[in-house]
Amino acid sequence: MTFFSNIWRNEKSRELIVQIIVLFFLGWFISWLVMNVNANFEALGKDISFEFLFIPAGYDINQYLIDYNNRDSHLRAGIVGLLNTGLVAFFGIILATVLGIALGIIRLSKNWLASKIAYWYVEFTRNVPILLHILLWHGIIINTLPHPRKAISLGEVTFLSNRGFYIPKPLTETGIELVYLFFVIAIIFSILFAKYCKRKQDLTGIQYPVFWINVSVICFLPLIAFFISGMPVSLEIPALKGFNFRGGMHMSPELAALTFALGIYTAAFIAEIVRAGILAIDKGQREAAESIGLKPSKVMNLVILPQARRVIIPPLTSQYLNLTKNSSLAIAIGYMDLVATLGGISLNQTGREMETMLIVMLIYLSVSLSISALMNWYNSKVKLVGR
Amino acid sequence: MKTKMLLAGVTAGVMFAGSVLASTLDDVRARGKLNCIINTGLAGFAAPDDKGNWTGFDVDFCRAVAAATLGDADKVNYTTATGKTRFTKLAAGEGELLSRNTTWTFSRDVDLSQTFIGVNYYDGQGFMVPKALGVKSAKGLDGASVCIQTGTTTELNLAEFFAGNNIKYNPVPIETNAEAQELYKAGRCDVYTTDASGLYATMMSFDNPSDHMVLPEIVSKEPLGPVVRHGDDQWADIVAWVLRAMMAGEEKGITSKNVKELAAKDNKDKEINRLLGKDPLQGLSKLGLSADWAVNVISQVGNYQESFEKHLFPLTIKRGMNALYRDGGLHYIPPIK
Q1: DSSP string across B293-330
Q2: Where in chain B is the domain with CATH 3.40.190.10?
Q3: Are strands A169-172 and B54-55 parallel, antiparallel or unpaired?
Q4: Which helix (H) or strand (E) covers residue B98, if one does?
Q5: Among A167, A244, B46, B299, which residue has the least CB neighbours within 10 Å?
Q6: Cβ contact (<8 Å) for B145 and A334?
């Protein structure tokens, strides 16, 4: 009796006991769920099998980054969908980040109009559900842009229509290797030059316009090679053939709408995160920087933002994760992402609900964990180093 | 999965109950009303009219079965069902009859334990285009953008048709019929594809139906027909012969106008006599129907032709495959003797 009451009175052992009990019930609940599924499947005469992944999918997908036709397997259809998810998440994250940081800074500007516009943007955008953003952008694109036969032409090479945007596609010819080589040389030069200037500045305090010199080198060196080797790039210009444009590079209205909607929606949240990050930096830092005569842009880039980054990164990560997961709403406008292919048409054609849903969930989980890991790594690079 | 689980359980329960308790016919007679499962709304097949009464080609069949079994075509309770819920509702006993443009396929007949009692509308997947496009054949659709409603066999039919004719297309998969219509109207797609009857119904809901047309190619077989539960052969026979009586009416020229008159006299064509109860039809008592069952069906609902012309001609649907065999169609009914 005293032995047990002693254990219970000991804080450490009491915590251990409570944790064991909770763990036991959790394990019991999970195994009950699994057994329930198994029992129901058995009653139906169904089994859990992933063989359907290797039979021909039979349906077509309108956008594929790797070769695909309807005789390919459900697995390949799923990969095509996953890459489409990745593509829209990639574009969306770039748009959201650029727009969000700009808006966050503008919102803090002393210009009354600019700051109010940023304020209203944030308030309007983040208080409307993302699905409505997606439907709105899709509606705007397909209802306001003209039919391909009356497409808006920009210099007869780029076309805007309600079937999407068409731009010329560069086709490389022999001799392009020289351009690539010069490009690599330019990059290596830039890195070395930047290191050299940094050391020079550390030693003497003299500053060079490193950024502009490097940009010019990276732009002009390959350009010179391009002319030397006789312009080895030709453009495949989109042309109207039959119902639609053929050739060139194509961005579908669905991809465009989804990118705009996800980017613009998430930008509102990122703007607030950036603003919070900047405001978290003590006023004294700014005043100190200004007092040593730094220009406002230098104050921001050299003093405020590097410190604000530490505050910004963790919540920014979760916005990137949200954007990626929100891209699964693509199904509403017919963009064929992972949910629409493997979790939609494949599910319907094969009747393997449990298997497809498990795969789709696992994929989203691993994508999110990867983004998380990447951002954590970046966070550990920029975080305050304890000395 | 859930659906099927429920189906399996309920079907087993219903079959067991059916063998012990009264037959489906007795249930309907005891209730005094037929419970009929119909579409949630498809112009021409099942849609509420301006007074809120269900009307349409599929609704007429519910009425015909009520006329044959209860003597009054108006004694029907309607239950609506979507494509997903229809079989569950039938299996769960929410209705004795599923009359909801349902395609007869092997797996539905065998795997889901339903009884398809015949075909009342031969359909197939077709293509709708704006006339301004200047396309006369689906084979001229090379490179077109095609709006598809996902979640049916449509995607596979489409892929096979285009691959088989070696032409390319750009699929635009859409979740519901309503959204797909909006995209088609906005010009996001050149073509909209679904069952041809659905295309006509959709087209007639547009502001300018005459600006659109359905292409002649039909790329799949979609035999649509009424469905009943497995396990009550008497009920299945009743429903099957009501459908045949409506077709026999057209074949023999019996209409809602002249049926009373023909029933009263001795016709030269003895099949008319047997159908209308003038001469005895051997075995009718086994179905539990009175001698005037077919008279009730044709006088209150009309024959197959009348129902078709009343509901589907306004949608500009032609008889085509749905004509009687003697007119070059597919409807060929067994003799009534």
Answers
A1: HHHHHHHHT--HHHHHHHHTGGGT---GGGSBGGGTSS
A2: 2-122+223-327, 125-220
A3: unpaired
A4: strand B97-103
A5: A167
A6: no
For tokens 């019991």, name the residue. Answer: A28
What residues contact B331, with CB distance under 8 A and at least 6 apart?
A: B119, B247, B304, B322, B323, B324, B325
Residue B210 contacts residue B204 (beta carbons within 8 Å): no
Between helix A305-326 and helix A253-279 the angle, nearest 10°, is 150
Instruction: Tokens for A23, please give them.
Output: 């763990």
In angstroms, what separates the C-alpha of A37 from chain B's closest C-alpha? 10
φ, ψ (nearest 5 deg) of residue B57: -65, -45
Digit-coded pLDDT (tens) for A339-355: 888 888 887 777 677 88
Spell out the residues 6+ positions from residue A281 whose beta carbon is closer than 8 angstroms to its own.
A304, A307, A308
Is some CB atom of chain B closer than 8 A to the CB atom of A142?
A: yes
CA distances from A357 to A41, A78, A131, A331, B222 (A): 15, 12, 22, 15, 30
Interface test with B, best of A69, A141, A243 (most B CBs within 10 A): A243
Q: Which CATH fold topology does B125-220 show?
A: D-Maltodextrin-Binding Protein; domain 2 (3.40.190)
For the question of an ipTM over 0.90, the answer is no
Looking at the complex, does the CB of residue A59 fall below 8 Å from at least one CB of chain B? yes
Name the token pair of A143: 């209802």
Helices B293-300 and B233-252, axial angle in degrees (round to 10): 60
Structure tokens at A73: 């397997």
As a whole number of angstroms, the distance between CA B163 and CA A128 comes to 43
Q: What is the pTM of this model?
A: 0.73
Interface subset of B 183-242, CB within 8 angstroms of A: 183, 186-188, 190
How far does chain B reach from its first CA to its final CA, in angstroms? 45
A349 touches chain B (CB under 8 A): yes
* CATH code for residues B2-122+223-327: 3.40.190.10
Tokens for B250? Answer: 């057209």
Q: What is the least distance, in Å, from the CA of B188 to any CA of chain A?
A: 6
- Six token digits for residue B200: 């006509």
Choice among A154-158, B35-39, B319-323 with the minimum mean pLDDT: A154-158
pLDDT greater than 80 at residue B318: yes
Query: Using CB atoms, which residue from B8, B174, B188 is nearest to A44?
Result: B8
Write out the DSSP string of B273-293: HHHHTSS--TTHHHHT--TTH
Give chain B positions within 8 Å (CB) of A336. 173
Determine contact, residues B233/B208, Cβ cutoff 8 Å.
Answer: no
Q: Kindly indicate the confidence band of residue B17, based on its pLDDT and cuts at 50, 70 and 90.
A: very low
